[in-house]
Amino acid sequence: NMKKVEQQIINQAIEQRKQAGMSQMEVSIKLGITYNVMYLFEAGKKQVTIDFISKLNEVFGWEFDVKISNN
Q1: Which residues contact 35 (CB under 8 A, 6 or more apart)?
Q2: Pair 16, 60: CB distance under 8 Å
Q3: 55/33 Cα distance (integer angstroms)
Q4: Rounded distance between C-alpha atoms, residue 29 and residue 32, angstroms
Q5: pLDDT in single tens digits along all 71 residues of the chain
Q6: 3 contact partners, CB below 8 Å, separation of at least 6
Q7: How many C-alpha atoms does 32 have within 13 Å on its Cβ side?
Q8: What's the rounded Cα separation, in Å, for the pair 63 and 18?
Q9: Which pLDDT belongs to residue 43?
Q10: Which of 23, 27, 33, 50 has the most CB atoms within 10 Å of its CB?
Q11: Which residues, other chains included, contact 29 with Cβ-Cβ below 8 Å and sequence gap of 6+?
Q12: pLDDT computed for residue 70 by the predictor
């Protein structure tokens, strides 16, 4: 289920942001996006894209481990 995969990515991104001691605003500035986009992403109201995941990895070195199952 794609929603479960998206939620895994969102949770991991939030955790990595917090471990880095960064606010949503700081992350959005470094990514070159608006704070609103970052907020919507973390709130699960904006679809997770491969481009967005790639940008998080490129800028911050964050990696994502997702488990895909039919359950």
Answers
A1: 24, 25, 28
A2: yes
A3: 11
A4: 5
A5: 778 888 888 899 999 999 999 999 999 999 999 999 999 999 999 988 889 888 888 888 888 887 777 66
A6: none
A7: 4
A8: 14
A9: 95
A10: 27
A11: none
A12: 67
pLDDT at 66: 79
End-to-end, the C-alpha distance of the chain in Å comes to 8
User: Three-class SS of residue 65?
Assistant: coil
The residue type found at 36 is N
Six token digits for residue 10: 């969102």
Q: How far is it, in rounded angstroms, from Cα 14 to Cα 24?
A: 9
- pTM comes to 0.82
Q: Which of 35, 33, 24 is nearest to 52 (CA)?
A: 33
The closest alpha carbon to 9, from 70, 65, 68, belongs to 65
